[in-house]
């Protein structure tokens, strides 16, 4: 259900949601495997992709319908998204095809989101009486702003790749997301980890300047032997 493979050049790891017959919908077991694949990666960059024609349809609805503890299931997804967000590696969501509900939330937990021209995005939960509860109500407004976030979450409408780029949901529309992962992985891994950590802290409203100074001094010493 989850494939984890080191790229041929060894510079990054590809983690693939591999359940194409179900549009890569996620079960609790798949969430655990996804978390382990990202957190345990030794490479400085992880590319998250979906097999087949979709990126990820979100939670497996057959599981959702039979939940005995919905709050625990939501908490499970939140923990996995948090693990992706705080992983040592820079995580690139390479969205090709449909991202729906929890699939959008997984992409939001990643550090970079890039899309192919065939990518589409939608928070469809409100259309059947639910909403994304894997941290999306916090991350979506941080990424696209409150007004756009409410539009996307309350309308359940589908955004194509161009509109997703226009509103800032993705940073690039590219033919092959692997090229972006390779580009990022070509940089210094310690610098990548420091930038990720500091930007994430700042996005959450934490004071970053002292940590930024310390990290810069440490990296400078590593590079110039001081």
UniProtKB/TrEMBL annotation:
Pfam families according to UniProt: ECH_1
Entry-linked InterPro entries: ClpP/crotonase-like_dom_sf, Enoyl-CoA_hyd/isom_CS, Enoyl-CoA_hydra/iso
A GO term, aspect molecular function: catalytic activity
Family label: Belongs to the enoyl-CoA hydratase/isomerase family.
Protein name, per record: Enoyl-CoA hydratase/isomerase family protein
Organism: Halobaculum lipolyticum
